[in-house]
Amino acid sequence: MNNNRFADNRAWFLVLPATLLVAFSSLIPFIAVVNYSLQIVFNMNTHSFVGWSTFHDALTNEEFRGALGRQVLFTAIVLAIEVPLGIGVALTMPRSGRAVGPIMVVLALPLLVPWNVVGLIWQIFARGDIGLFGAFVNNVLHINYNYATGSVSAWFTVVLMSVWHWTSLIALLCYAGLCAIPGAFYQAARIDGASRWAVFRFIELPKLRGVLTIAILLRFVYSFKVYAEPLTVTGGGPGSSTTFMTEMLTNTAIGQFAYGKAAAYGLLYFLIILLISYVFYIVLTRVGTSEGDQ
Amino acid sequence: MQWMLWTLPTAAFFIGIVAILIVMTIWQFIQPTRERRGWIIPMRTTRGDRLFIGLLSSAYLTALWVALVPLTSWILLVLVVLWIVGLILFG
């Protein structure tokens, strides 16, 4: 037996503090949630084991499936708008000159606004009576728009708000990626007489792959756990048309005190996030390797 | 520990997970894993990767079973164990 069979694993001791912290803040509560999820919990002294029934309820009732469906739809719409728009904005930005600074500041501005303040801004901005945007749509365009009573209006507001808040993130990341492409690629393309589309398709897009993966991952995570923004504007309404997973979980756990049910919902939510995070992890770690290109 | 509301089934579950991790560690000492491509997963994986994929897919399998199959979950347990072992050996 030679000593080179095992990698030197001593470096793992360096992550011990982080591991202990995560154990305290996440792992132990997570284990408790697993325990809660199979019980009906009235309080810490009165609880009874009910097996899979909380999960069976969660997977078959409309409340959970509705909220999950809306969450998936919201994330899909938001990504489908923000990613192309962000790339587009990045492509139109100048690579050098006086304008770069002001443009960057303007782009970064929405990112600096906290979630609930973004919600507050849009809650007022989109109001039909005193909000500039709401009044414009209602009185100038003559479209009946009220996010408090119409579910289409509510969805439109929530999506538009997310696009306003987060497109900059994708634009800035893509801009950084574009600036990192050496000029020689563009010269070669010019010599070959490549069209603008061909330059984008065969030079810029492949070079942006790593940056875009991270941008999409971040945007996926943020939009899949969205909470404060829609809650501030629509309060999950009208009805439950903009009630997303996080809000439904909060209502179940803190509103109804149904800890067991909320734990089951939370675990199913966690499973989805875990799967998608793992897929992103695989993509990120294997991009550019021969494995990733197969 | 009272606030964690332990029950026998969940305790057994977590003891099982810890036991799996211990067995995998010992196995790693006896015979270190090599990254390889198996029959089921279309990429190169180590034994630990396959365990993780096995556990995650089992969670989904369990959710499907609970939602759709009105039979005792002991059958599910057997299926899940067979699936994870198969995945680690051949996946």
TrEMBL record, chain A:
Pfam family, one: BPD_transp_1
One BP term from GO: transmembrane transport
SUPFAM superfamilies: MetI-like
UniProt-listed InterPro entries: MetI-like, MetI-like_sf, Sugar_ABC_transporter
Domain ABC transmembrane type-1 stretches: 68-280
CDD domains, alphabetized: TM_PBP2
Annotated coiled-coil segments of the chain: none
Keywords (A to Z) from UniProt: Membrane, Transmembrane, Transmembrane helix, Transport
Gene Ontology CC annotations of this record: plasma membrane
Keyword Transmembrane helix tagged: yes
Source species, domain of life: Bacteria
Annotated compartments: Cell membrane
Record field: transmembrane: 12-34, 72-91, 103-125, 163-189, 210-228, 262-284
Chief subcellular location: membrane
Membrane topology per record: Multi-pass membrane protein
Assigned protein family: Belongs to the binding-protein-dependent transport system permease family.
Name this protein carries in UniProt: sn-glycerol-3-phosphate transport system permease protein UgpA
UniProtKB/TrEMBL annotation, chain B:
Transmembrane segments: 6-30, 51-68, 74-90
Keywords linked to the UniProt accession: Membrane, Transmembrane, Transmembrane helix
The organism's place on the tree of life at top rank: Bacteria
Protein name: Integral membrane protein
